[in-house]
Amino acid sequence: MLDDLPTSGLWASWIDDGPVLRRRAMRLTRGDREEAEDLLSSTLIKAISHVERSDTQVREPRAFLLFALKNEYISRLRKRNSERQVRDFSTDIYEDNAADLADSRPSQEHLLWQQEALGRVMRLIDRLPAEHRRIFEMRFCDEASYRDIAVALGISEPLARKRVQNLRQMLRQGLETGEEPALVPPASRRKA
Fold this sequence. Notes:
This protein has helices at residues 8-16, 18-28, 33-54, 61-86, 98-103, 108-127, 130-141, 146-153, 157-177. It is mostly helical.
């Protein structure tokens, strides 16, 4: 009666081919007997449950078990590698890491520099002509597309891109030199 079960061939092979499977497990685990036994046990459980669940007819039980053993070993390696990426096993989890967190905060000098740079940007924006301030607000505050800027200003999309590019250059120049940027286009490009 037991011979009629789909897993009966696996059980027979498990007993008959035990030494072969054990040698393969020892080789895969590089001689770690405990890990090899654990690998064999989980392989048997997964192979039997797979055959029972899917009602699979196994023609070569020995080859099937060797294949399942290799797959189980690969699955364990992948799981272990992904855990290593998430965890740092050399770190003591009870160690107080508050000092490291405190060090990652920016220094007072850096905060002061950021505040000064932001103040300079705001002063530069205040000095821009109304049309440039409007372009700045649409592009960098409202995140409007070049098409939307072009429609709002009644200009072409390439011209809207060019004006945003000029605005960026003026602001960059003003920040680098500390001087008021040239707010009018060069004379050669002005329309008569």
